[in-house]
Amino acid sequence: MTTPTAGDLLRHWRLERRLSQLELAGRADTSARHLSFIETGRATPSRTMIVHLSEHLEIPLRERNRVLLAAGYAPAYAQPGLDTPAMNAVRGAMRQILAGHEPYPALAIDQNWTMIDANSGVAVLIADIDTALTKPPVNALRLSLHPDGMAGRIRNLAEWRGHILARLARQVEVTGARDLADLLEELRSYPGGEVELTVPEPDQAVVPLRIEHDGNELSFLSVTTVFGTPMNVTVAELAIESFFPADEDTMKRLTAGAR
To answer: Which of 75, 171, 240, 245 sits CB 3.0–4.6 Å from 250 for a disulfide?
Structure first.
């Protein structure tokens, strides 16, 4: 198998973004001829040009490093472990957000939806699931849609599945990550139906998660938080999924449980 060149990778991402050479050249303030030479290997792009084109193509930081390596340059974006001293501030901010969200559920995930950390409120979501699904590494989407996971307690499962699968499909398209594509294929094999939310109800703002807990229905709205202006791969791939009460009854039950 031939190793892709920097030009091959840049062309791949240009096509993923559905841009012509002329369109990308206009955005990046270069000529379509020079861009063509880069993609075909007739010209070697500078390190600065690769970073410049990557920004206009919105290439994920991990993949930008891959393009740089293919061109013979050192990676531009570090990938420190989350438990290293360099990540102390990020780790502290993440834990502060999780703790401050209690008694409502919140969890930290990486790009592949692997759960990194969570607050005590998550216990409401994962109650009574198969413990095999909670053995590290724990995948939050598998936990949600697996028949032995939360799926049996989700009252609007088809609607929630439709939302999750559509969101993951968009993530696969944006990142091109093989691991996410495999996860999407796995999740689609689970039972539960799927509703395409092309036309929302007149009063619908977001897709709620409606889950049964202790004989009652809890309804949540999910919000994703990411770190602004990430400068390394680890931070760029971190996110916090927070769940807010979608109705007053859910808020009262969670608040009373916390007391």
So the answer is: 245
Where do the DSSP E strands lie in the chain? 106-109, 115-118, 209-213, 216-225, 239-245
Distances (CA, A) of 250 to 56, 103, 105, 174, 217: 43, 11, 12, 34, 8
| pTM score | 0.87
Return the closest-CA partner of residue 193 out of 149, 140, 157: 157
Number of helices followed by number of strands (H, E) in the chain:
11, 5
In 3D, which of 1, 54, 35, 103 has the Cα closest to residue 236? 54
**Cα–Cα distance for residue pair 58/10, rounded to 1 Å:** 11
- The SS3 of residue 233 is helix
Under 8 Å between Cβ of 124 and 154: no
C-alpha closest to that of 51 among 28, 32, 34, 31: 28
Question: Which pLDDT tens digit goes with each residue over 178-217?
Answer: 999 999 999 999 988 766 655 556 566 688 999 999 999 9
d(CA 95, CA 117): 8
Q: Give the CA radius of gyration of the chain.
A: 21
Angle at 143 between CA 184 and CA 83, to 5 degrees: 95
Q: How far apart are CA 221 and CA 244, in angstroms?
A: 5
